[in-house]
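Our consortium's second objective concerns turning raw sequence data into structural hypotheses that experimental partners can test. To show how far this objective has progressed, the report includes one record in full. It was chosen at random from the queue rather than selected for favorable results. The single chain below, 328 residues long, was entered without modification.
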Amino acid sequence: MSTFNSADIAAFNGGVWVFCEQRQGTMMPTSFELISEGRKLADELGTKLYGILLGHNIEGIAKELGGYGADGVYVCDHPLLENYTTDGYTKVICDTVMEYKPEVMLIGATNIGRDLGPRCAARLHTGLCADCTHLDIDVPKYKQFLRESSTLAPAMIDGIPEEDRNLKMTRPAFGGHLMATIICPRFRPQMSTVRPGVMKKAPYDAAKAEACRIVKPAFSLTAEDIQTQVLSVEKAANKLVDLIGADVVVAVGRGISKDVNKGIELAEQLAAALGGGVVGASRAVTDAGWLGADHQVGQTGKTVHPKIYVALGISGAIQHAAGMQDSE
């Protein structure tokens, strides 16, 4: 590990990696989304795509990642990894990255990912772009994205060098009023946390799942490496709305009604009448406390892909529209 140098870019030829989050032996949906997106990036780079999966007794769920595009999965299985701890997961991931040197590392911007990503980036002496909503490597594709989604002058877009092979990581900034694209040209791996629900999951391919290679890297982990102890895992009783997986979303804005409660109740009735839909909200509604943050759609909320999206009393600000623009 002493020879690891994050600035030696030429040494990082270990492919594109995705941290695949699981909880109690169940793969999180974000893992499949990122594997699907990672497949595109790996193809653009002409390299392999690998998942890295940590936990205990989790080898049985690893091959499923191959069905969404992974060429292989690094399975780090250890009793001390059964429950997530920042220290344990950071050590194992960083030791494995230092050994195999991936060029790109993607992590879901979940509660765990937002804790894990910065710690790993700091230890690996590289950069991290947080909360990304768009990723590109291929310059022509990136230019097309800018033409469709930005207000940049055509001459500025055309002037981007075609030979730029850095990962272009786009994220909302200044409360969603600005979209910034960030690159990490001097260090590797190029790391990004990606907002759940933004990337589309590819169709599952059973043949690719069967062909997926399982790799068990050597690593060391002792109780002394972990400064915290998980005594128990308590699941919250609160039921959160599943916006990302919903086929029908009825979203309400600040103009829903003078009688807020009645307006939201009507929206809930409409969502139910449209076939078990769920109620979403603009940022103004969640900021006012009319609905919880788990209902928020937009750049600073959740990105949704329903078959039907109904917006009631919403002005249509670009920050909100960015969270629902891929609705059918």
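The partners drew two points from this record. The first strand starts at residue 16 and ends at 20. The CA atoms of residues 301 and 323 lie 7 Å apart. Both points have been shared with the crystallography group to help prioritize constructs.
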